[in-house]
Give the backbone structure.
Amino acid sequence: MTMHETTTHGVTKDATTDATTAHGVTTDATTARGIRQRAETFARQLVRFGLLQARCCAFAVALLGGMAVSTLLPSLPVTRYDLLLAYGVLLTTVGFLLGWETRREVAVVAACHVLGLAFEMVKVRVGSWSYPEPGLAKVAGVPLYGGFMYAAVGSYVCRARRLLDLAVTGYRARATAALAVGLYANFLTHHWLPDLRLPLGALLLAATTGTWVHYTVVERRHRMPLAVSFALIGFFLWLAENIATYLGAWRYPYQLHGWEPVSVSKWVSWALLISVTFVICGTGRCDGALPPGQGRDEPAPDDQAVPGGVLGRAGGEGEVAAGGVVAVGGLGEGTGHGPDDARVAG
């Protein structure tokens, strides 16, 4: 082999090495760009999801805002609890006129209000929590405005169904409904009868295994397990309860002489009790998926309802609309009687 041939062969090898290196650099750049684009997409989806959640929580946020403002008011001839009742009625009326809820959804919210008041009367009577301030509109020690906290949860659920185009697959309606009723009854009767929340909770987990919640964030569909949705909703309700008790909306026995954080155990209780709202909203036939071209903040027409109280999602074979199912991570009792009592409060 001549010197010329050797040099040429070396140049060829160098060129091949340079080409391989360049290809590797290009591949690394493409991978980095793909990771960056996915991260940016995720961030945008998360922000948009947060904004949708804020719209879903409009009633609840307004109610908590009213509680906060009421603590700043000077002495008035009307008690704070009675003012909050009037504010809740006004808020419900304005929300309906603004299209936050349809007529059907208002009926569902009213059902949450009534069930909540019944729950309150039992719990206040046994001393789980109390409303220490005076008020004319009180029944069995419970101010009537207390029902609006439950109504706020129902409002959130109904708006989330509509704004996020919620649907579920693999939903065991009868089993979930039966367990929700059992959990609600157990939270009332465990003061006198054996507490069955753990076995009932285990059965609820089993009944919702394989059930997925599907939701839309700016035309992109996501999903998460229904049980995870319950846990996440329960967490944010626990946070809301901390805010409400800090504002003096009600007091647990250990908060009467100064505010303390609500026990973390209430998170678990809320996660179980949200199943009740889920079932109420399904039975009440909240308006669900929107037809193409309709604004996502507009109520769906009443003829979207499917007999039996469950809404089907257009084009979604095997899917049914899900009430009370929203959670943040799927982009992919209080108590003088132990840590087991939980409030169904917004």
Observations:
- The longest strand covers residues 212-217.
